[in-house]
Design goal:
The protein has two domains: 193 residues, Helix Hairpins, CATH 1.10.287.2610; 135 residues, Glucose Permease (Domain IIA) (Distorted Sandwich). Helices cover 62% and strands 13% of the residues. The chain is built from three helices and twelve strands; from the N terminus they run αααββββββββββββ. Helix 2 packs antiparallel against helix 3.
């Protein structure tokens, strides 16, 4: 008991001596340290998902190309089939017109043949009539020739007066003229019938020639129609195959696009979770107060064009609608990227979307991000000054050209950078 009291007293004495000697125990040794967030495991999981997403996007791009090729072939087959069907309609019309023409020509030829028979009979009858009348005319001429002088003289001399004489002479002249007219009329009738028969023979010949040509053209057109029908059948088979191929590649593209969207959503969720944890860690460890001043332009002032603002837009690479969480400033490759203000580097790494990027904490919940760099010049935990070169511009990650993707975050939420920095 005495020993215990003795030890207690000895301890008090020693503590008093130490205190009187001016030795003070550091305050940090009396504080329970707060464990900071280690994002290594989460970032490794995120990296794996990003690699899977990259592979999916590659496969999706191939599927998209396959679908585009299948769609182009399908469209071409569709156009070829439409042309073949138009040709079939045209051939059908042409064959129908030719069949109609053949029918009309055949009817016309039949008419000419009937007319030829009629005119052949008419010519034969007229020939017989002419021959009979010509025979009678010959007999009369012979009789008149044999005693025409006596007969005509008796008729003239038996005239009772001069006027009667003239009358009788006129009668005889008329008789002679009549005979000549009869002979001439018979001759003309025969010639007219012969000419008409010749005309119809010519028409018959022409009609037959036309019919022969049409009959020759018909098999050619029929063969064209048969060839066209065979072509249409083949085109329809090809069209169906290409349509099925187009539908299959479209479905494959849709499935892969859906997988890409799901993977993107998983990555966004994982990134959000990491950012949440980082934000919580920063809330414990960050500077309480903002370093002060207006944020500076993140590159040389001569590069003052903004190619994309803090707006909703169509992603220039993937084509979906998104909220653009910063501004894009085009820069020549390798140009200096400058810290917008003094602060602490809290991120300096590669990201599948941002490429090589840097995040600087400026205190008071304000941080800035610089993305798509070709090279990083600072590391996590490093203190930087305003205007210090922290990276070199490039086009890494999801990018369409060399530029800075500049973001400003207020308490972890992206805000319009132009509300915090003056555009030169």
């Amino acid at each position: 008991m005495n020993l215990k009291k003795h030890l207690i007293r000895l301890g008090i004495v020693l503590l008093t001596a130490v205190f009187l000697a001016g030795y003070v125990i550091p305050m940090w040794s009396l504080v329970i340290p707060i464990a900071s967030y280690d994002a290594t495991a989460d970032k490794q999981a995120l990296k794996k998902m990003e690699e899977e997403l990259a592979a999916l996007r590659g496969t999706s791009a191939q599927a998209t190309d396959a679908y585009k090729n299948a769609l182009a072939e399908y469209k071409k087959a569709e156009a070829d089939l439409a042309l073949a069907e138009e040709l079939k309609i045209s051939l059908d019309r042409e064959i129908h017109a030719l069949e109609t023409e053949i029918e009309k020509t055949q009817q016309l030829l039949n008419t000419y043949n009937e007319q030829l028979v009629y005119y052949a009979d008419a010519v034969a009858q007229k020939q017989t009539e002419i021959e009979e009348r010509f025979a009678l005319f010959i007999d009369r001429v012979r009789i008149n020739y044999e005693d025409s002088f006596t007969s005509y003289l008796e008729i003239i001399l038996s005239s009772e007066s001069f006027s009667d004489f003239l009358y009788r002479v006129d009668i005889i002249g008329s008789l002679l003229d009549y005979d000549k007219r009869v002979l001439a009329a018979l001759d003309r009738s025969k010639k007219d019938l012969s000419e008409m028969q010749t005309e119809y023979q010519t028409l018959q010949y022409n009609a037959q020639q036309t019919l022969d040509k049409l009959a020759t053209d018909m098999p050619v057109l029929e063969q064209k129609r048969l060839d066209n029908e065979a072509l249409i059948q083949q085109l329809e088979e090809d069209f169906l195959k290409l349509k099925n191929n187009k539908d299959a590649t479209e479905e494959e593209k849709r499935k892969l696009d859906e997988q890409v969207r799901k993977k993107e959503a998983q990555i966004k969720a994982a990134e959000a979770e990491i950012e949440k944890k980082i934000k919580e860690a920063q809330e414990k460890e960050r500077l309480e107060n903002y370093v002060g001043g207006v944020l500076g332009w993140p590159c040389d002032l001569k590069h003052n064009i903004i190619s994309s603002y803090f707006v909703d837009r169509i992603n220039p690479v993937y084509g979906y609608r998104e909220k653009h969480n910063g501004i894009d400033i085009p820069l020549p490759y390798g140009s200096a990227v400058l810290a917008a203000n003094a602060g602490t580097v809290i991120v300096s790494e590669y990201h599948y979307s941002y490429g090589y990027y840097v995040v600087i904490d400026h205190g008071g919940g304000i941080s800035t991000l610089y993305g798509h760099n070709s090279k990083l010049l600072v590391s996590v935990g490093q203190q930087v000054k305003k205007g210090q070169t922290i990276a070199l511009a490039g086009s890494t990650g999801v990018s369409t050209g060399s530029h800075i993707h500049f973001c400003v975050r207020k308490n972890g939420v992206a805000v319009d950078p132009l509300g915090y920095v003056n555009k030169p």
